[in-house]
Amino acid sequence: MSNQTYTPNEEPHQRKSQAFKIWIPTLVLLVFALFLIFQENQNSSPKNADIPTPMPGSQSALETLLYTQLPELVADAGHSAWSLDEVQFNEDYTQALLWMAENDEEVGDIIAREPEIVLAIWDPTNQLWQLHQVSDEDFSQIFMESDFKESEIASRFFPDADPKAGPAGPVYGGYKLPWAGGLTKRLTWSVAHSSCNPQYYCNHAFDFADGGMFDVVAAKGGFVYHWRDTCRNGNSGCANSITLEDRTTTPWTYQIYLHLAQDSIPAALKVTGAYVSQGQFIGKADDTGVSTGHHLHFMVVEKTTLDSCRYYCFGKAVDITFQDVSINWHAGTQGGRPRLEAEARWYGGQGQKNYISGNVSKELPYKIILFPIYKNSSK
């Protein structure tokens, strides 16, 4: 067999050197690193704070200055992801109550729960707005000296409470999630709750949402102690609620259901002392009062910290467990505690977003009517 030689029509491509092979992925990693740095800078930029700016001429000079300075002030406080949900000014526009909502990265909208409360006070000496966050230890004292001290929101601030006492206390059980069994709702806030002051007053409160209004049922049996459902739906300055007194605990405890819809509490329950069984319908969740969207705020407080219930009842939330929640289990009460994944990473335990209720009403689906029996006297 003769040897044959093949001569190509063009020179073959030269093989890439090993140095070239190493340089390409290095360049890719460098570009990726620069992208991450850019994204990080973008995320921490004050411009990410969603602060609406009213049309020129529609506000005072101080109001305009607040909107101008707010993004940087919010970023300095470490909350560049906040959105301004609502702002309320005093008469001379030297004080403002800001409702800051946290954005939901998954759906691109604000999270339906109670807002982070910020009190802004104009500092004429430095020509700056000073922000006081509800998490500040002295927030209640400052708020009660402001022009908003008579507003309904003041019900959740306790200047006389010990700021260092903490949420420690007994654990109460026997509760079930406050909506009909078999349905799923989303937890939007629990142990990280910070819409009251001292902040530990809300550590054991829960916010549940469903994307709209939904039926609320009693988490546990009790007697009607306080109610109001005359506030129009969506009224941020007026909160509907119902509070049930639980006489099976020592001391007596009070289940507080906040942000209900107008005229949604059954007429039979608008009676002090009326008994409500576990799983019984008590109203519809809306977004009345201090709320960034349709949700239910649920908490249980002891009589020792229960306030006067001037507008709605409030106090220091106690640690409770739900029989239909399996995570963060408490053996003594045979129940678990709802918690978000982000909260679990910070506070410990387990976390999840969605929860299925096992709260089945023990009420009969019909009413028994007894008719009188008359004896025939003609016989």
What's the overall average pLDDT, rounded?
83
Task: Describe the sheet with the most strands.
Answer: 8 strands, antiparallel
Q: Give helix and strand order, one letter per element, not per position.
A: HHEEEEEHEEEEEEEEEEEHE
* Spatial strand arrangement across the major sheet: 13-10-11-12-15-8-7-17
Distance between the ends: 134 Å
Shape: globular
Would you state the CATH class of the largest domain?
Mainly Beta
Count of individual beta strands: 17
> Regions with pLDDT < 50 over 5+ consecutive residues?
1-49, 364-379
β-strand percent reads: 25-35%
**Assigned CATH superfamily of the largest domain:** Glucose Permease (Domain IIA)
What name does CATH use for the topology of the largest domain?
Glucose Permease (Domain IIA)
Rg is 29 Å
Which class best fits the helix and strand makeup? alpha+beta
CATH architecture of the largest domain: Distorted Sandwich
Write a structural description.
It is a single chain. The chain has 379 residues and is of the alpha+beta class. The protein has two domains: 51-150, no CATH class; 171-356, Glucose Permease (Domain IIA), CATH 2.70.70.10. The chain is built from four helices and 17 strands. Strand 4 and strand 5 (128-133) form a beta hairpin. The radius of gyration is 29 Å and the shape is globular. The chain starts with 17 loop residues before the first helix and ends in a 23-residue tail after the last strand. Mean pLDDT is 83; it is low at 1-49 and 364-379.
